[in-house]
């Protein structure tokens, strides 16, 4: 595996994404920005969470012990929770949270894992997209509606304070043979496809491969700046990882 990546914060803000890579693996987390006025019950922010949690997952992947990916994520959530249980209310449903996306090569297969909506895109002769889209189908997007749905059956699942959330992630594997390239993206780096509709997934992979992650982020910033009447966050942290096989 040859890995290259760029991670860029929202202009003027701290980066709430986390990315790390090692021989045969990639981990990416995208922290959920806290809505204004919401009490998370935690003295820590999403940036703290993704660094602690992402760093723990990376350390476990580096051991190369073959433990299933959901088990690694569950252990990392548990250990991260233990690091601040004495100072923070981990029962608060608005505790800081993050997506988790993982790739790991083992022998002749590449394993993938996604928890929430940071997509993994693979070129296996055809484009395959692995994305947990449950957050796109909630009955309500009010603060209270999202609170009720977070890490609840019938809602959506994220990495926060409940280790069992790891087992709600989607996972699978593809053969290395025929796998040309893959992308691991925070939703801030998938916007040219998912939000602005400026290209398809095949175009995004081609752009990453030919011009690199930096160019993808540059074009995303252009689109964000020129989007008329943008709803929600105009800008977002953007992390793009290209993996060649």
Automatic annotation (TrEMBL):
SUPFAM superfamilies from the UniProt entry: PP2C-like
Checking InterPro entries in the record gives:
PPM-type-like_dom_sf (IPR036457)
The protein's superkingdom reads: Bacteria
Q: Identify this protein by name.
A: Protein phosphatase 2C domain-containing protein
